[in-house]
Write a structure and sequence with these properties.
globular
Length: 616
């Protein structure tokens, strides 16, 4: 531990900066020292200031073990995941994992120093939040302040005003990207909706039904298929603006301070990614907003104020039901959230537990009845087999490519039943399981083969533990490694399924301003090349932000306040099990809900009944 000495602290800061900036080449098995002197000096100065400030901060005392333990756990976890991501990107994603003494020493040293710097940062942050003054101060009665108050007010007028403002801010995206943005998923849904391919609940039936009928209506009315896409995009703008408007209005009910609500609303309206997503005809847009709204339902249930309001109860049930219908992993979010809430109520407050159980369980029953009974009667196929098998499939595929020559004859026979070894070596992508999943999808129609795949995966895990685990880290790196290479999002429009059952790009027809490089502009934001704007769509940044928020709530013993975070946490876990590493649309809820949950964390007045802070 550094003593409170300026020279030692400066030396320690310089050493920390130097170590943090080191990289390693797995293939060459050597540590690389890059010539980045300016960055080194800036980082040294920053770390020095952090350490000095932390030492001087009288609020961080030796007695405050709770703060030290929580920040230490988060810091070590972050550092370990950072080094795993770095090693993955340095070559472990494509070569056999061999942990040389050099790699082990490099990893340990870097984890220690990153943890040390991160711990100091978190302690300053947590104490700063804890001791900050109330952000809501008395304001002068000016025309501007009265106007802002009307916009933020949680009533019907405020709701309409906010919705209209967001619509006005997002309409230009539609006019520039006219007739809107679609994807491969959109095209597949429309193929089903137009009867060209059979309905399958891989792309949620409710979304397919809605967008295909809107498309047919506009197509029949105007004779233009593109007008159908445009109408879908316009309706989505209106729906999402209303959902965001409700969320911002509800923040006032939680006593979240006015400044945070203003900044949050401005962020929602002006952040290009949110505006762009509003015109992408995707199931994920509405689904992720429904997840944020489900967190508000959890808050309402725990606050108990409206628990006996029958109309609201029915609305909550419908919302939770639609969340599950809009995407299949919604069932996991609902079930796990329900288990946590009911467990809490059993041990703390059984007063309304029967009513709450009905509100939480009835949507699940309705969903299971819809998907397992009604859909079968309508001859609607279920999701493709193996959709949730990405982790074991990738683990086996990686071992085929790297360790296939060492397989026993029995292993070659058992694995060869599912996989073509030569095709695996050619098509295996460490960050995308679709290639492997599609290769064996027909085999997984037989559910007994799913069990065989799991058994083979366990066998690979026992025989080649490092390589099998590395397959998992490679396929999920986009969710935890802060320096990950992010994906772009398409800005294309796809061909009418009435003309062809294959995807073909159509010419875009902007209505106001033709921006030829619009695709490049948006891609730069999504892939991390645009300063500041790229930060908030960087998935690991968002995930770690939420971990830090939850850590602060644990530090303050606000355990009950953590429960509304559960839908987002489960969403991240389901994304980790998904076929793609770092797919932004899978977890948009952590972006959409950022102002809300940041406000919950920062606001001293936000206290759910039963929190420790409430007792003080």
């Amino acid at each position: 531990m550094l003593k409170n000495n300026k020279i030692l602290q400066m030396i320690g800061s310089a050493l920390s900066s130097y170590i943090i900036l080191l990289t390693i080449s797995i293939k060459e098995n050597r540590i690389i020292v890059e010539n980045r002197m300016f960055i080194l000096l800036l980082l040294t100065l920053f770390i020095y200031m952090v350490i000095r400030y932390n030492k001087k901060n009288e609020n961080i005392e030796e007695k405050n073990k709770r703060l030290k333990v929580i920040t230490c756990i988060i810091s070590v976890f972050f550092a370990v995941m950072y080094i795993i991501g770095e090693l993955t990107n340095s070559g472990f994603d494509t070569v056999k994992v061999i942990l040389s003494k050099k790699i082990i020493l490099y990893s340990i040293v870097k984890v220690i120093w990153i943890s040390y710097v991160m711990k100091n940062l978190l302690q300053i942050l947590y104490v700063g939040i804890e001791t900050k003054k109330d952000l809501d101060i008395k304001e002068k009665d000016t025309k501007l302040n009265r106007c802002i108050e009307k916009i933020l007010k949680n009533d019907i007028k405020g709701f309409i005003l906010r919705s209209l403002i967001l619509i006005v801010l997002w309409i230009p995206y539609l006019l520039i990207l006219y007739p809107g943005v679609t994807s491969w998923d959109t095209n597949q849904s429309l193929l089903q909706g137009y009867g060209i391919t059979p309905y399958r609940n891989l792309h949620p039936v409710i979304h397919t039904f809605i967008i295909s009928n809107i498309n047919k209506f506009a197509h029949n009315l105007t004779g233009s298929y593109q007008s159908g896409i445009a109408l879908n995009a316009l309706i989505q703008i209106i729906v999402t603006s209303m959902m965001f408007s409700f969320i911002v209005g509800y923040m006032k009910n939680l006593n979240i301070c006015k400044k945070i609500r203003i900044i949050g609303f401005i962020f929602i309206g002006l952040y290009p990614v949110i505006g762009h997503f509003s015109v992408i005809v995707w199931k994920d847009i509405v689904f992720n907003l429904l997840i944020v709204l489900s967190s508000l339902v959890i808050i309402e249930i725990l606050k108990e104020k409206n628990i006996k309001n029958l109309k609201l109860n029915i609305l909550w049930i419908i919302l939770l039901y639609f969340m599950m219908l809009y995407k299949n992993n919604g069932i996991y979010i609902e079930v796990l959230s329900s288990i946590v809430i009911l467990t809490y109520l059993i041990f703390n407050n059984r007063k309304n537990i029967i009513r709450v159980a009905i509100i939480l369980i009835l949507p699940v029953i309705l969903y299971l009845t819809t998907t397992n009974v009604i859909f079968k009667q309508l001859k609607i196929l279920g999701p493709t087999p193996g959709e949730a098998m990405g982790i074991p499939i990738q683990g086996i595929a990686r071992n085929i490519k790297i360790n296939g020559e060492d397989f026993t004859p029995e292993e070659k026979e058992q694995i060869g039943y599912f996989f073509d070894f030569e095709k695996v070596k050619e098509l295996y992508n460490p960050r995308l399981s679709d290639n492997m999943k599609n290769m064996i999808a027909h085999k997984l129609e037989d559910k007994s083969n799913i069990i065989k795949i799991v058994k083979l995966y366990i066998r690979m895990l026992r025989r080649y533990p490092l390589d099998t685990i590395q397959a998992f880290f490679s396929n999920t790196e986009g969710y935890y490694y802060i320096n990950t290479d992010m994906h772009g999002v398409t800005t294309n429009v796809y061909n009418s399924p009435l003309e062809s059952d294959r995807i073909a790009v159509l010419e875009r027809k902007p209505k106001i301003l033709r921006i030829d490089n619009i695709n490049e502009i948006m891609q730069n934001i999504y892939t991390g090349k645009t300063p500041i704007l790229s930060i908030f769509i960087n998935i690991p940044f968002l995930v770690w932000s939420y971990i830090i928020m939850i850590g602060y709530l644990i530090y303050r013993k606000r355990y009950l306040d953590i429960i509304p975070f559960i839908p987002l946490a489960v969403l991240v876990l389901t994304a980790i099990a998904s076929p793609v590493s770092g797919e932004q649309r899978y977890i948009l809820a952590i972006l959409y809900g950022y102002p809300l949950f940041l406000g919950i964390t920062l606001n001293k007045n936000y206290i759910l009944k039963g929190n420790k802070d409430e007792e003080k």
